[in-house]
Amino acid sequence: MSTDVSTEVLVIGGGIAGMVAANVAAQLGKSVLLIERGSEEKYPCNTRWTGGTFHVCHTDPFSGQENLLQAIDRTTGGTARKDVALALAEDSPRFIRWLRAESIRLISLGGYNTCVLAPPSRIGPGLHWEGLGGDVMLRTLEANLKKRGGHMQRGTRATALDRSGQDGIVVQTECDDKTANFRAQDVIIADGGFAGDFEMIASYITPHTKRVLRRNACTATGDGLRMALAAGAALSNGMENFYGHLLSRNAMENERLWPRPYLDALVTACIAVDGDGIRFADEGLGPNYMANAVARLKDPLGSFLVFDQAIWSGPGTSALIACNPHIPNCGGTMYKAQTITELAGMAGIPGANLQHVVDDYNQAVTAGKLQGLSPARHTDRYPALPIKVAPFYALPMCTGITHGMGGILIDGNSAVLDKKHEPIPHLYAAGTVTGGLDGGPAIGYVSGLTKSGVMGLRAAEKIAGAKLSSQRQ
Ligand SMILES: Cc1cc2nc3c(=O)[nH]c(=O)nc-3n(C[C@H](O)[C@H](O)[C@H](O)COP(=O)(O)OP(=O)(O)OC[C@H]3O[C@@H](n4cnc5c(N)ncnc54)[C@H](O)[C@@H]3O)c2cc1C
Q1: Are the C-beta atoms of 392 and 36 separated by less than 8 Å?
Q2: Ligand 1 atom nearest to CA at 217
Q3: S-S: 44 plus which of 103, 161, 216, 217, CB 3.0-4.6 Å?
Q4: Ligand 1 center from residue 274 Cα (angstroms)
Q5: Which class would CATH give 244-401?
Q6: DSSP 422
Q7: What is the pLDDT of residue 469?
Q8: How far is Cα 171 from Cα 156, in angstroms, rounded to an integer?
Q9: What per-residue confidence (pLDDT) applies to 470?
């Protein structure tokens, strides 16, 4: 196969994983070409739209290796790949120091938000990105790559890999309706995964693709996954699980209601019911678990949160971009009534069912016997609050998929693994196209940005056969 360009390292995708990998490889002396499908100067991607918090299981990345390993173990019920978990726990601080040395500004917003890209993007309901954290970071890293002699080619989509030759991997691409072949010694797939593509969502997550929201930039359309599979790669467990949030149902058509405010603080304080008024999942397992549970319902657009005035005035106001007052202010539907039966009538839920479910729940809260409910309600992380103080509320919701938790199986150095779990020579992957870390029984969310950056850095160091010296971090 003839080739148009040759390089030592070819990176597919210009989000954080690809940008970090490309810069570190160039720092370590490699010739680098990054190809990016988006053609605009500020091409959209999840990194550009990110909330910007670098964390590991909602824990400060500088809280110590042992602490991070325990957090990953707890969050995933011990199912995370040990080598990738160790890579993250070991290298998160080193990666964040590297980012700072690249002139990326990080600030603290309190709580686990100790390392947040500045200027922060969480400035109000709806999507805000231009001139903010993720956008500034990508433009800075792109400029740094150029200064290091690396190249970036926009408007170029990788479509296939050919590993049959003796001399590296050939990546087939499309650019302005033309095809071109790039040869590289090593290839890093960093295209963000598949959560922007309805067909792939249908293959892995839910057949009801038009009844879930793609809470993402819709740029991750599964090319990397398909190329890796064709090259013999294994996929991780948990392809059906995703990182996402519950949102007002009106977010399906109202852009002011996503990516924020999301319902995390509410769903973990009250009850979620389906269209029959019946609880369907354990709210105490957390907001990400509940977002997945809603996607698996017969009708993912048919569920509600039910709570009272005390919850609305308490947890409802607690997030950075809180549901109260933003959901009603931005046009999100909320039913409000003095009794549960009246509320059920307004929401179109069978009143007797809802009354029964709320009564059972309140009794269990009073008696401290929430484990006896069906489904059980955990209280170790999120206390269950009673639903007793009128007025009562029903909030119709939808689920928003940010990115998949499953993906290409990699080892602790980002090498793509085959079905025997052996590295496929010269093929690497980093970012949300990879799996094997998040998941477990509670569908625990470990990390988006931090994992993407650390594994991008690791891929580049493995390819270069060298580590960045400490002065460069
Ligand atoms: C609204 C929102 C808020 C978030 N907030 C947080 C947060 O606070 N903390 C956190 O940790 N995570 C957060 N995340 C998740 C985090 O942003 C992602 O985990 C991370 O940005 C993924 O980076 P990536 O490089 O893997 O993918 P991406 O940033 O999606 O980049 C992949 C790139 O590959 C390109 N591409 C796709 N296909 C091809 C192809 N065939 N050829 C060439 N290029 C291709 C795409 O155009 C894209 O530019 C958030 C995400 C969203 C959407």
Answers
A1: no
A2: 53
A3: 217
A4: 31
A5: alpha beta
A6: P
A7: 81
A8: 11
A9: 63
